Amino acid sequence: MVNVEFRDVDLRIRKEVILQDVNLTFEPGKIYGLLGRNGAGKTTLLSLIATYRKVTSGTLTVAGENPYENEDIMPLVDFLHQEDYSEESTTVEDYLKLSKRYKSSFDTDYALSLLDEYNINLKKQMMELSRGQQAAVDASLGLATMSPVVLFDEVTNGMDAPSREKFYSQVLNAKNRENRIIVLSTHIVSEMDYLFDEVIIIHHGKVLVDEPVDEFLERGYQVTGNASDIDAYSKDKRVVKARTLGPTKAAAILGRLSDEDASLMEEMNLTYSVMRMQDLFINMTEDRSGKEHTHEQQ
Predict the structure, then answer these.
(1) Are residues 127 and 98 in the same domain?
(2) For the segment 241-274, what is each residue's pLDDT rounded down to a tens digit?
(3) 250 shares its domain with 227
(4) Which residues contact 235 (CB under 8 A, 6 or more apart)?
(5) pLDDT < 50 regions, the chain
(6) Tell me, what's the pLDDT at 248?
(7) What is the pLDDT of residue 268?
(8) Which Pfam families does its entry note (predicted)?
(9) Last residue of one domain, picked from the residues 172, 191, 216
(10) How does DSSP assign 71-125, residue by residue?
(11) Whether residue 203 is found in the same domain as residue 229
(12) Taking burial as the number of CB atoms within 10 A of a residue's CB, which of 65, 86, 113, 142 is the most buried?
Protein backbone atom coordinates (compact mmCIF):
# COMPACT_ATOMS: atom_id res chain seq x y z
CA MET A 1 0.00 0.00 0.00
CA VAL A 2 1.00 3.62 -0.60
CA ASN A 3 1.84 5.96 2.29
CA VAL A 4 2.67 9.66 2.10
CA GLU A 5 5.19 11.01 4.61
CA PHE A 6 6.49 14.51 5.35
CA ARG A 7 9.55 14.73 7.57
CA ASP A 8 10.78 18.19 8.67
CA VAL A 9 9.62 19.69 5.36
CA ASP A 10 10.14 23.37 4.61
CA LEU A 11 9.12 25.19 1.45
CA ARG A 12 10.39 28.63 0.53
CA ILE A 13 9.42 30.54 -2.58
CA ARG A 14 11.48 33.60 -3.45
CA LYS A 15 12.89 33.63 0.10
CA GLU A 16 9.41 33.61 1.64
CA VAL A 17 8.65 30.73 3.99
CA ILE A 18 5.43 29.06 2.80
CA LEU A 19 5.56 25.81 4.80
CA GLN A 20 7.72 25.19 7.84
CA ASP A 21 8.66 22.07 9.80
CA VAL A 22 5.86 19.91 8.38
CA ASN A 23 5.69 16.37 9.78
CA LEU A 24 2.72 14.34 8.58
CA THR A 25 1.85 10.77 7.65
CA PHE A 26 -1.09 9.87 5.39
CA GLU A 27 -2.19 6.23 5.50
CA PRO A 28 -4.48 4.19 3.22
CA GLY A 29 -8.06 3.60 4.30
CA LYS A 30 -8.48 7.04 5.85
CA ILE A 31 -10.24 10.24 4.82
CA TYR A 32 -8.28 13.29 5.91
CA GLY A 33 -9.83 16.69 6.48
CA LEU A 34 -7.26 19.33 5.57
CA LEU A 35 -8.36 22.60 7.16
CA GLY A 36 -6.90 26.06 7.21
CA ARG A 37 -7.81 29.65 6.60
CA ASN A 38 -7.19 31.32 3.25
CA GLY A 39 -3.47 31.50 2.63
CA ALA A 40 -2.57 28.99 5.34
CA GLY A 41 -0.70 26.71 2.91
CA LYS A 42 -3.22 23.93 2.20
CA THR A 43 -3.01 24.07 -1.60
CA THR A 44 0.76 24.36 -1.44
CA LEU A 45 1.01 21.26 0.72
CA LEU A 46 -1.15 19.27 -1.69
CA SER A 47 0.87 20.51 -4.65
CA LEU A 48 3.98 18.99 -3.10
CA ILE A 49 2.33 15.58 -2.88
CA ALA A 50 1.13 16.00 -6.46
CA THR A 51 4.73 16.64 -7.60
CA TYR A 52 3.95 20.21 -8.74
CA ARG A 53 6.71 21.55 -6.50
CA LYS A 54 9.90 20.37 -4.85
CA VAL A 55 10.50 20.75 -1.13
CA THR A 56 13.19 23.20 -0.10
CA SER A 57 14.43 21.05 2.78
CA GLY A 58 13.37 17.93 4.64
CA THR A 59 11.98 14.82 2.97
CA LEU A 60 8.66 14.01 1.32
CA THR A 61 8.02 10.46 0.16
CA VAL A 62 5.15 8.79 -1.66
CA ALA A 63 5.34 5.00 -1.58
CA GLY A 64 8.82 5.42 -0.07
CA GLU A 65 10.18 7.54 -2.94
CA ASN A 66 10.73 11.22 -3.64
CA PRO A 67 7.73 12.11 -5.83
CA TYR A 68 9.20 15.15 -7.60
CA GLU A 69 9.60 14.47 -11.35
CA ASN A 70 9.34 10.77 -10.56
CA GLU A 71 7.55 9.00 -13.42
CA ASP A 72 6.86 5.96 -11.26
CA ILE A 73 5.12 8.03 -8.58
CA MET A 74 3.13 10.51 -10.68
CA PRO A 75 0.46 7.94 -11.68
CA LEU A 76 -0.19 7.15 -8.01
CA VAL A 77 -1.49 10.63 -7.19
CA ASP A 78 -4.44 12.65 -8.48
CA PHE A 79 -4.87 16.31 -7.55
CA LEU A 80 -8.34 17.72 -8.22
CA HIS A 81 -8.72 21.49 -7.96
CA GLN A 82 -10.62 24.30 -9.62
CA GLU A 83 -10.02 24.44 -13.35
CA ASP A 84 -10.99 27.08 -15.88
CA TYR A 85 -13.17 25.38 -18.50
CA SER A 86 -14.48 28.59 -20.08
CA GLU A 87 -12.80 27.74 -23.39
CA GLU A 88 -12.76 23.96 -23.13
CA SER A 89 -14.59 22.40 -26.08
CA THR A 90 -13.86 18.78 -25.13
CA THR A 91 -17.02 16.86 -24.28
CA VAL A 92 -17.50 15.03 -21.01
CA GLU A 93 -17.52 11.77 -22.93
CA ASP A 94 -14.16 12.56 -24.50
CA TYR A 95 -12.79 13.54 -21.10
CA LEU A 96 -13.53 10.03 -19.90
CA LYS A 97 -11.75 8.56 -22.92
CA LEU A 98 -8.73 10.78 -22.31
CA SER A 99 -8.65 9.79 -18.66
CA LYS A 100 -8.55 6.13 -19.62
CA ARG A 101 -5.85 6.74 -22.21
CA TYR A 102 -3.52 8.52 -19.80
CA LYS A 103 -4.28 6.44 -16.71
CA SER A 104 -4.69 2.72 -17.20
CA SER A 105 -6.28 2.29 -13.75
CA PHE A 106 -9.16 4.61 -14.68
CA ASP A 107 -12.49 2.81 -14.20
CA THR A 108 -14.82 4.10 -16.93
CA ASP A 109 -17.89 2.20 -15.74
CA TYR A 110 -17.39 3.54 -12.23
CA ALA A 111 -17.02 7.09 -13.58
CA LEU A 112 -20.24 6.74 -15.57
CA SER A 113 -22.14 5.52 -12.51
CA LEU A 114 -20.88 8.49 -10.48
CA LEU A 115 -21.73 11.01 -13.20
CA ASP A 116 -25.17 9.50 -13.61
CA GLU A 117 -26.04 10.66 -10.09
CA TYR A 118 -25.54 14.27 -11.21
CA ASN A 119 -27.53 13.84 -14.46
CA ILE A 120 -24.57 15.08 -16.51
CA ASN A 121 -25.06 15.16 -20.29
CA LEU A 122 -21.98 13.36 -21.59
CA LYS A 123 -22.34 14.91 -25.05
CA LYS A 124 -21.97 18.45 -23.72
CA GLN A 125 -18.71 20.35 -23.97
CA MET A 126 -17.09 21.19 -20.65
CA MET A 127 -17.52 24.92 -21.28
CA GLU A 128 -21.28 24.38 -21.72
CA LEU A 129 -21.68 22.96 -18.24
CA SER A 130 -22.46 25.05 -15.18
CA ARG A 131 -19.67 25.57 -12.66
CA GLY A 132 -21.33 23.06 -10.37
CA GLN A 133 -21.56 20.46 -13.14
CA GLN A 134 -17.91 20.99 -14.03
CA ALA A 135 -17.02 20.42 -10.38
CA ALA A 136 -19.09 17.23 -10.39
CA VAL A 137 -17.17 15.95 -13.40
CA ASP A 138 -13.84 16.69 -11.70
CA ALA A 139 -14.97 14.97 -8.50
CA SER A 140 -16.24 11.90 -10.34
CA LEU A 141 -13.10 11.52 -12.41
CA GLY A 142 -10.98 11.89 -9.28
CA LEU A 143 -12.69 8.97 -7.59
CA ALA A 144 -12.74 6.88 -10.78
CA THR A 145 -9.00 7.15 -11.47
CA MET A 146 -8.57 4.54 -8.72
CA SER A 147 -5.28 6.20 -7.79
CA PRO A 148 -3.99 5.25 -4.33
CA VAL A 149 -3.76 8.96 -3.38
CA VAL A 150 -6.60 11.36 -4.27
CA LEU A 151 -6.37 15.03 -3.28
CA PHE A 152 -9.52 17.16 -3.49
CA ASP A 153 -8.84 20.87 -3.11
CA GLU A 154 -12.14 22.74 -2.57
CA VAL A 155 -13.59 20.48 -5.27
CA THR A 156 -17.20 21.21 -4.25
CA ASN A 157 -16.93 24.92 -5.07
CA GLY A 158 -19.84 25.76 -7.36
CA MET A 159 -21.91 22.69 -6.46
CA ASP A 160 -25.37 23.21 -5.03
CA ALA A 161 -26.31 21.57 -1.73
CA PRO A 162 -27.86 18.40 -3.25
CA SER A 163 -24.79 17.85 -5.44
CA ARG A 164 -22.46 18.31 -2.48
CA GLU A 165 -24.41 15.70 -0.53
CA LYS A 166 -24.07 13.29 -3.46
CA PHE A 167 -20.33 13.84 -3.51
CA TYR A 168 -19.99 13.27 0.24
CA SER A 169 -21.87 9.97 -0.11
CA GLN A 170 -19.66 8.96 -3.04
CA VAL A 171 -16.53 9.64 -0.97
CA LEU A 172 -17.77 7.53 1.92
CA ASN A 173 -18.60 4.71 -0.47
CA ALA A 174 -15.60 5.16 -2.75
CA LYS A 175 -14.53 2.04 -4.59
CA ASN A 176 -11.49 0.36 -3.01
CA ARG A 177 -11.51 3.05 -0.31
CA GLU A 178 -9.72 0.80 2.17
CA ASN A 179 -6.57 0.94 0.00
CA ARG A 180 -6.69 4.65 -0.85
CA ILE A 181 -5.72 7.91 0.80
CA ILE A 182 -8.41 10.56 0.32
CA VAL A 183 -7.67 14.15 1.33
CA LEU A 184 -10.44 16.76 1.40
CA SER A 185 -9.19 20.34 1.63
CA THR A 186 -12.20 22.50 2.43
CA HIS A 187 -13.64 25.56 4.11
CA ILE A 188 -17.11 23.96 4.39
CA VAL A 189 -16.22 22.29 7.68
CA SER A 190 -19.78 22.13 9.00
CA GLU A 191 -20.89 19.96 6.06
CA MET A 192 -17.91 17.64 5.82
CA ASP A 193 -16.94 16.97 9.42
CA TYR A 194 -18.66 13.57 9.53
CA LEU A 195 -16.52 12.37 6.61
CA PHE A 196 -13.16 12.75 8.32
CA ASP A 197 -11.16 10.07 10.07
CA GLU A 198 -8.30 12.46 10.77
CA VAL A 199 -8.07 16.25 11.01
CA ILE A 200 -5.07 18.27 9.88
CA ILE A 201 -5.02 22.03 10.41
CA ILE A 202 -2.43 24.17 8.67
CA HIS A 203 -1.98 27.62 10.20
CA HIS A 204 0.53 30.17 8.95
CA GLY A 205 2.37 27.41 7.08
CA LYS A 206 2.76 25.13 10.12
CA VAL A 207 0.89 22.04 11.26
CA LEU A 208 -1.31 23.16 14.14
CA VAL A 209 -3.28 19.90 14.50
CA ASP A 210 -2.78 16.35 13.25
CA GLU A 211 -4.96 13.82 15.06
CA PRO A 212 -8.03 11.58 14.87
CA VAL A 213 -11.39 13.35 14.86
CA ASP A 214 -12.46 12.13 18.28
CA GLU A 215 -9.26 13.46 19.86
CA PHE A 216 -9.61 16.78 18.03
CA LEU A 217 -13.16 17.27 19.30
CA GLU A 218 -11.87 16.95 22.86
CA ARG A 219 -9.94 20.19 22.42
CA GLY A 220 -12.92 22.40 23.22
CA TYR A 221 -16.36 22.41 24.81
CA GLN A 222 -19.29 24.58 25.80
CA VAL A 223 -20.59 24.88 29.34
CA THR A 224 -23.95 26.40 30.31
CA GLY A 225 -25.48 27.41 33.63
CA ASN A 226 -26.07 30.24 36.04
CA ALA A 227 -24.00 33.25 34.93
CA SER A 228 -22.15 33.67 38.24
CA ASP A 229 -21.32 29.95 38.35
CA ILE A 230 -20.05 30.06 34.76
CA ASP A 231 -17.84 33.03 35.63
CA ALA A 232 -16.44 31.19 38.62
CA TYR A 233 -15.84 27.97 36.70
CA SER A 234 -14.19 29.65 33.71
CA LYS A 235 -12.07 32.30 35.42
CA ASP A 236 -8.81 30.41 34.79
CA LYS A 237 -9.79 28.94 31.41
CA ARG A 238 -9.52 30.13 27.82
CA VAL A 239 -13.01 31.41 27.05
CA VAL A 240 -13.30 32.23 23.35
CA LYS A 241 -16.97 33.14 23.27
CA ALA A 242 -19.74 33.79 25.80
CA ARG A 243 -23.46 34.48 25.57
CA THR A 244 -25.79 35.64 28.34
CA LEU A 245 -29.58 35.44 28.38
CA GLY A 246 -31.09 36.62 31.63
CA PRO A 247 -29.52 34.65 34.49
CA THR A 248 -28.13 31.99 32.14
CA LYS A 249 -24.74 32.08 30.49
CA ALA A 250 -23.01 29.82 27.95
CA ALA A 251 -19.23 29.87 27.51
CA ALA A 252 -17.17 28.24 24.76
CA ILE A 253 -13.85 27.06 26.17
CA LEU A 254 -10.69 25.88 24.42
CA GLY A 255 -8.95 23.11 26.31
CA ARG A 256 -9.48 19.48 27.18
CA LEU A 257 -11.98 18.62 29.89
CA SER A 258 -10.27 17.04 32.90
CA ASP A 259 -11.88 14.70 35.43
CA GLU A 260 -11.59 17.52 37.96
CA ASP A 261 -13.44 19.87 35.59
CA ALA A 262 -16.20 17.31 35.07
CA SER A 263 -16.65 16.87 38.83
CA LEU A 264 -16.73 20.62 39.36
CA MET A 265 -19.38 21.07 36.67
CA GLU A 266 -21.51 18.40 38.31
CA GLU A 267 -21.20 20.12 41.71
CA MET A 268 -22.17 23.48 40.18
CA ASN A 269 -25.02 21.97 38.16
CA LEU A 270 -23.51 23.10 34.85
CA THR A 271 -24.28 21.39 31.55
CA TYR A 272 -21.62 20.37 29.05
CA SER A 273 -21.63 19.92 25.27
CA VAL A 274 -18.94 19.27 22.68
CA MET A 275 -17.90 22.24 20.58
CA ARG A 276 -18.72 21.82 16.89
CA MET A 277 -15.74 21.10 14.67
CA GLN A 278 -16.25 24.30 12.67
CA ASP A 279 -16.37 26.45 15.83
CA LEU A 280 -13.32 24.68 17.21
CA PHE A 281 -11.41 25.24 13.97
CA ILE A 282 -12.39 28.93 13.83
CA ASN A 283 -11.45 29.59 17.43
CA MET A 284 -8.14 27.72 17.23
CA THR A 285 -7.06 29.68 14.15
CA GLU A 286 -8.27 33.09 15.28
CA ASP A 287 -5.56 35.60 14.45
CA ARG A 288 -5.84 38.05 17.30
CA SER A 289 -2.97 40.12 15.94
CA GLY A 290 -5.25 41.35 13.16
CA LYS A 291 -2.74 40.41 10.52
CA GLU A 292 -3.75 38.41 7.47
CA HIS A 293 -1.69 35.57 6.00
CA THR A 294 -2.19 35.62 2.24
CA HIS A 295 0.73 34.00 0.47
CA GLU A 296 -0.73 30.61 -0.45
CA GLN A 297 0.51 29.52 -3.84
CA GLN A 298 -1.82 27.91 -6.38
Answers:
(1) yes
(2) 999 999 999 999 999 999 999 999 999 999 999 9
(3) yes
(4) none
(5) 289-298
(6) 97
(7) 96
(8) ABC_tran
(9) 216
(10) TTTGGGEEEE-----TT---BHHHHHHHHHHH-TT--HHHHHHHHHTTT--TTSB
(11) no
(12) 142
CA angle 126/298/87 to nearest 5° reads: 20
| Contacts of residue 264, Cβ cutoff 8 Å, sequence gap at least 6 | 233
pLDDT recorded at residue 42? 95
User: What SS3 class is residue 11?
Assistant: strand
For helices 131-144 and 108-116, give the axis angle rounded to 10 degrees. Answer: 150
Q: How far is CA 87 from the centre of its chain?
A: 29
Alpha-carbon separation of residue 262 from 95, 222, 226, 241 (angstroms)? 56, 12, 16, 20
Q: In CATH, what number is assigned to the domain containing residue 269?
A: 3.30.70.2020
Q: Are 84 and 97 in contact (CB under 8 A)?
A: no
297: Cα within 13 Å, side-chain hemisphere: 16
Q: Are residues 32 and 130 in the same domain?
A: yes
Q: What is the pTM of this model?
A: 0.91
| CA–CA gap between residue 140 and residue 117 (Å, rounded) | 10
Cβ pair 124, 136 in contact under 8 A: no
What is the count of structural domains for the chain?
Answer: 2
82, 96: one domain: yes
- Between CA 40 and CA 222 the distance in angstroms is 27
What is the separation of C-alpha 72 from the centre of its chain, rounded to a whole number of angstroms?
A: 26
By C-alpha distance, which of 132, 37, 125, 121 is closest to 82? Answer: 132
* 220 close to 279: Cβ distance less than 8 angstroms: yes
Question: Which residues, 6+ apart, have CB-to-CB distance to 68 below 8 Å?
Answer: 51, 53, 54, 55, 60
Residue 274, in any domain of the structure: yes
Which residue among 216, 250, 275 closes a domain? 216
Residue 137 three-state SS: helix
Identity of residue 38: N
How many whole angstroms separate alpha carbon 9 and alpha carbon 23? 7
Q: Name 239's bridge partners.
A: 253
